[in-house]
């Protein structure tokens, strides 16, 4: 797992370096949106807190720490590993519920007591009572270029046009 942690950090550093020209072109230096600013910090802080090793599969629980909204947050991850010869491959990664903090509270509106959510499940779920915007409605509600008179007609717009 530690080899994975180190290799992932190197890959993230390369990805962030490759994104710099893109960010400089479209974002002001102080804009944090889409910056992946805390990604490296989280990755570098990841520590193994529990290992449940089996013959053909194992589970490794880790914690990542990062600063958010003036405080420190902890993300718990559970890696499901499968044996492949003398090595292991990551088969699945789950995240601890951030609402009940992985306690498995059956009244939790997010995980409903499961404690762990698959990566796609965590992004798609919304606590009960919160509405998710209807993409169809958003598409019709936004000001489209053809409605505003700013047509690009397939041409490459200059940087200042909002096309």
Secondary structure elements and pairings:
Blueprint: H1 2-26, H2 39-45, E1 47-53, E2 57-68, E3 71-84, E4 87-96, E5 116-118, H3 119-124, H4 135-141, H5 145-148
Antiparallel strand pairs: 1-2, 2-3, 3-4, 4-5
Helix pairs in contact: 1-2
What features would you describe in this structure?
The longest helix has 25 residues, at 2-26. Mean pLDDT is 79; it is low at 126-151. A five-stranded antiparallel β-sheet has the order 1-2-3-4-5. The protein has helices at residues 2-26, 39-45, 119-124, 135-141, 145-148, and strands spanning 47-53, 57-68, 71-84, 87-96, 116-118. 6% of the residues are buried. It has five helices and five strands. It has 163 residues and is α+β, with helices and mostly antiparallel strands. Helix 1 (2-26) runs antiparallel to helix 2.
In short:
Helices cover 30% and strands 28% of the residues.
């Amino acid at each position: 797992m530690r080899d994975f942690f180190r290799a992932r950090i190197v890959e993230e550093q390369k990805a962030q370096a490759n994104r710099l020209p893109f960010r400089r072109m479209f974002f002001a230096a102080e804009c944090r949106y889409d910056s992946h600013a805390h990604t490296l910090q989280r990755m570098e802080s990841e520590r193994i807190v529990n290992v449940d090793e089996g013959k053909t599969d194992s589970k490794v629980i880790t914690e990542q720490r990062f600063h958010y909204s003036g405080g420190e947050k902890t993300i718990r991850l559970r890696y499901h590993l499968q044996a492949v010869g003398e090595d292991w491959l990551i088969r699945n990664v789950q995240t601890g519920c951030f609402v009940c903090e992985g306690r498995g509270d059956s009244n939790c509106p997010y995980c409903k007591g499961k404690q762990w959510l698959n990566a796609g499940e965590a992004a798609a779920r919304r606590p009960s009572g919160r509405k998710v915007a209807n993409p169809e409605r958003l598409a019709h509600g936004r000001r489209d270029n053809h409605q505003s008179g700013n047509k690009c007609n397939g041409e490459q717009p200059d940087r200042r046009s909002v096309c």
